[in-house]
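Appendix B. Chain record.
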Amino acid sequence: MVQLLYYYSCVPLWPIVSLAFFISFLSHLLILTAQPEFRDYNCYPKRSNFKNASVYHNNLKAILSNFSSDDTNIEYGFINSSYGQSPNMVYALGFCRGDVKPGPCRTCLHNATIRLPQKCPNRKEAVGIYDDCMFRYSYHPIYGTYKYNISDVRYLWNPANSTKLTGAYVEVQLDKVKSQAPTGESHRRFAAANDTTSKSGDVYAFAQCSPDLSQDDCRSCLQNVYDGIPLCCEGKNGGRVINPSCYIRYESYLFYNYTAVSSQPSSPPSTTVTGPEGGSDSTGSQTSNVVKIIIPVIISVILSCLVGCCLLRRKTRNNSQSILRENFGEEGSNLKSLQFNLVTIEGATNKFSEKNKIGKGGFGEVYKGILPDGREIAVKRLSKSSVQGNLEFKNEILLIAKLQHRNLVTLLGFCLEEQEKILIYEYVPNKSIDFFLFDSEKQSLLTWSERFKIIGGIAQGLSYLHEHSRLKVIHRDLKLSNILLDNKLNPKISNFGMARMISIDEDQGSTNRIVGT
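Structure tokens predicted for this chain:
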């Protein structure tokens, strides 16, 4: 170190300053990219936002800093914090899977506190989900509260199909953990079960509630996520349904620490964090953060060039996989073949030329395009102000990719690049039914026999969705503009953004919002 100081004292100052800036940039880049991707996350786009440098923003940064401090006691895998004063109070809560030890638990929560505000900038409420932990923050109290909301529920499933793990076989283990978890120790409400003796194969189940929930709320929460398993994961090798306050999961392999699930501590700690507006300061946390920044800077002096090249190369190579994982979770691996790059779509539509535009709606604009292999396509480009949000966009991709019928429009692929949300369909030349029926001249072009044929085709498409497809789907937005006609006037049902999967045996249900037209 003495030799290094002597060396730098003998050289001009500007190279040292330039190197310092370069090293600082690389260290910050290293910090930003060090956290692994979430399994899933929810930014609650329809809830409150905040502005940069606002009181809420400063409170959020403070609570996240305190939350990830190394001296935070998370021995029992749970921490609850609040910071600031109303109306800018920030509430945060995190808990780890019941079998995760304190070290990995702290690392998981630390990663979540850094990654979540990056994924959900300017959102007052968000939740991030890792395999080992869940973390969330909000502008309203969340400790000890539970309200079921369908928009809060996340579905993840193993893409591998299984003919052995039948519903009844899996349900036996899920029933066990669902009933046992609420009666566990109050600081760790979780349960695990398995069956490795059946000819149907091994099955491992796990259920857990956030420790702040009462037994009754835990029981209610687990029942709701349990009811979602058949909707997403029937016939799969594994799956999980997650609410911010609880989750239930099963797999065909051992995914938890088998020896740790039966050893639980006897009493939980009480952890509450306050700040300048609440009474105490965060000097210790700030000192810890300074140390965390200095250490990567020192390391980057030695590895700066190597790390920079590796990060850039890795970012380019994994960009496509990252987009799928961030937007579709585990299901993203099944959608790789449907992913188009933006350059291909721009080439097919002549960069979204006005001459190629064939329609426009509340969702955005539709263009005709021709792929390099000669296929004609319809490109649905969602505008930023579209009424069709992220949820509907993802829903349409996940649903149509699994449905195949002559009376359903064929989804060829999608594109998610540079903030663009684009759907690519087969080109249907005769537009939609309302193009004919609501035009005084074109009405006469449809004979009664053709109209009868169209009605029959729509009925066949709906019958497939309701009774004969591998998923039971309710469209919920069936109207003339969503029925397209091909060159032989065969009808094709389109626009599945508001569609909903339901249980095979379900014949009625309720929703928390009005959808459709």
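Further analysis of this model is presented in Appendix C.
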